Amino acid sequence: MHFLFGFGLVAWLLLQHLEVSAQALRFQPQGATAAGQGNAFVAQADDASAIHYNPAGLSQVEGLQAVYGTTLLGGSIKYKSPTGIDTRGDFGGSIAFPPPSHTYLSANLRALGWDSLSNVTVGLGLTSPFGLNTRYPVDGPFNTAITSAALPLIDIKPTVAYKLNDQLAIGVSADIYTFAGFLGQGHAEQRQAGSGALAGASVEFNGKGTGAGATVSLLYTPLRNGDGKPLASIGLVYRTQAVVPLSGSFLVSGAKIADASANLVLPQMYTGAIAIWPVRTSEREWKLELDVEYVGWKSMRDLDVHLSSGGVIPQPQQWKTVPVVAIGTEYKWLNPDWLPHWDVAVRSGYTRTENPVPDTTFNPGIISLSSNTLSIGAGFLCKGQGQFLGLMSCGGVSSLSPKAIGLDVAFQEWFYEPRTVAGNLNLTVNGTYQAYVHLGTVSAKFMF
Predict the structure, then answer these.
(1) pLDDT value, residue 215
(2) Of 16, 301, 393, 437, whose CB neighbour count within 10 A is largest?
(3) Chain CA centroid to CA 120, Å
(4) What angle do CA 75, 80, 85 make, to 5 degrees?
(5) Please, is 24 exposed, middle or buried when counting C-beta atoms within 10 Å of its C-beta (0-12, 13-18, 19+)?
(6) pLDDT (tens digit, 9 = 90+) per residue, 414-428?
(7) CA 235 to CA 41: how far, in whole Å?
(8) 409-434 CB burial, b ≥16 within 10 A, e <16
(9) pLDDT for residue 26
């Protein structure tokens, strides 16, 4: 019975971490253009990163485009117990490694020689939306709850967008979630110090699997300027629930004790966004955008753990659906006299993220705290006779050369509200938590 209880507790804590990390630190910046605007990009969605933010927006991306980027992230989680004992956690080091990264490739079929399919744009994305690690001292005050956790999931996103007319486009993408060895150990993992009958042991649970969901979206543009560019756009996105079946092992001091399985459920999400351009001329552009997203954690009612012995450990949850609100702006100079053959953009934004997790199921393995995020960013697009970094022509000297090259950078600071946890199912977790996260995102863009 001690073994069964210990195993159930370990599995429950791991699975709780996996689920909550998807929202409390669901990794929202998946491109520097959006990150600089507080991730308010669903109604703009005018580069290849639309594959993630709004697949329908991919219909705006002409020719061939490739976007590659990564994020450097640091921060810490501070804890003080009711008796005054302190500890601190981080994300695997002063800078999270491997860094969360993103890749997007898109092609309008006209660029591939299919003129009759010029209204169709296809793309492929590769992101790491939940790929962060957390670690605490092995001799910390709640080491029987957690000492480290990792969830190196990647999302593979084949995408198609179709432009119905000048006002309306639709898009759809698959979301194939799986684990990747190049993002770490290639499986979900949580470690803790053993307690009770397992006191003194290094207890570990790991598992891996693959699941799928889908994203469907539309982009409605009721108003354009004389050059055909949007002056107002509305984006709607729905992401389905995805279930990743985890099959793994329960280990004590490295030795496998039992098999275990569970379903990692990623929530459905609804997003609505509106963007307006108060200024949009041949010389400059100014955009304002508001995005509102609802993340459906309410559907996560339990995290039952299935043991190889045939037993089931029920684990009811009490999470709630929460909103995420993002406001962003972008001001852009087009081919200015002070930097000819370049477009230059400055960006800023704010994001409010609510905490979906009650005290009873709180886990220190993630930052399950409400947060306010401030963002700033800049973008540089070199074209025509410009020289990118003074090293290469941006205007396409051959058919294989890009027509334009861009570099986007963003910085975000996440200000988390302190939280005091009481009444947790694991009493050692009770206490006060504070956290901060700062991150920088960079994306390189190539347009052919």
Answers:
(1) 97
(2) 16
(3) 26
(4) 120
(5) buried
(6) 999 999 999 888 888
(7) 9
(8) bbbbebebeebebeebbbebbbbebb
(9) 65
